[in-house]
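Input sequence (468 aa), recorded before submission:
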Amino acid sequence: MLVDTSPSRRLLWSLRGLVLVLLILHLAAPRFGEAAAWGLWPITFFAPAVRWTLALLVAALCIPALTDRLLKAARSVASTETAPPSQPPMRWFAALALLSIPLFWALRLVHTRWGDAYILTNAIPYPDPALRLVYTWQAPLTVLWHAKLWALGQRLWQWPDAFPAYAITSVAAGAVYVFLVLQLAWEVGRSRGQRLLVAGLLLSLGTLQLFFGYVENYTLPAVAIMIYLWLAARTLANKTPLWVTAAALGLANALHPSTLNLAPSLLVLAAISARRVGWPRTLLQTAAPLLLIGLGVIAIMQAGGHGLQALLSSDRPGGGDGRWLVPLWTTATRWEHYTMFSWEHLLDIVNQQLLSAPVSLAVVLLCLARPLTAAAPSLSAYVRFLAVAAAGSLLFILLWNPDYGGQRDWDLFSLSSLPLTTLAAVLLGRALPDERARWEAALALVGLSAFHTAAWIFQNTRPWEWGK
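Predicted structure, token format:
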């Protein structure tokens, strides 16, 4: 029997190998312990029988004979369908987004273990109104929104804490995220297989935990990032003005300043735009929205009695010790857990990637090692944009010091998975010119990612008590 050794088929076999390796690591997680393998640890919350059954089902998706039968069945079901519409089916996207709400709500998080969840749920409704958390430079518009929503809920329904405000916002943000992902997949995908890769990978990330009633300040920024990534694709296709995309990034920055790491990617859009309309107009369209949104945030914070003086003193960036970056050689405070070039730091980075986006970085590296097929100029420009966005995000998680350690601060770093995963999906759609190969890759990769994320979401539906 002849074996197809074309670059695309070799890449497909590499992807299958990646999936099998990750499955083995997941099944071996109990042997490593939570401290060493917290990115894989959610799998231990499944009963062994469930764990092994699901793992075998995912492994089966790496068998060519089985995927061939599945694809033939899918083609026979769709054989009577008309040609795909030229415009995105907005009603279907909206329906799927609405249908996601019951799922997000039913499997919502039930504890305050991660990040600042405990502080937020108690500081926003603090008994003394003068000491309540309403304004903070750590997440200006995000905390303000939750504080105002809690005040409304407390007045109407006597909410005892801010948990419902975060849960409602999280689930609603999840529905918007689903809608945006489907829009993005349609925008950048040139075939059903390419769209499946984009939508499948982005809708199976561990980062999706942010939308299951999550209590922290990263759900709204995640949505803002997706708006930015979608609008950037439309800007490069001359469908959306540059100033609208710049405003989306400004909104993300106002919701959470960690998204400032995406600023270099906006310069990519500006450079491309300047070739068409010149630098003066481009700079105006880029800077004006950012400046107006920035001044608006300052005005809001100043009006709340928490202006620039607080930003430069008590509410400075850097967390408990005011130190922004992982120390190079020695730790000096209890908020520093390791040095830059230590094994502990590397282990945290690996675990963070495994938890938020188990296949994304590996897929990017595998694709870059293979020749890419030709693409439309707008898509090639979008790849450059995504590469800069992903690089900025990865540089941020590599350098920024997590006050609580990598595991508890997983959510702060989880936003980096969005540009990275979009890049992985777009690159993979180009590296696999054969439509059938795209579907086969999507089945295996999305199967593994969904298996991992299902365990992670299930873990957070289990009660957890402080001090246990």
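Checked by second reader. The chain has one domain: 15-65+88-459.
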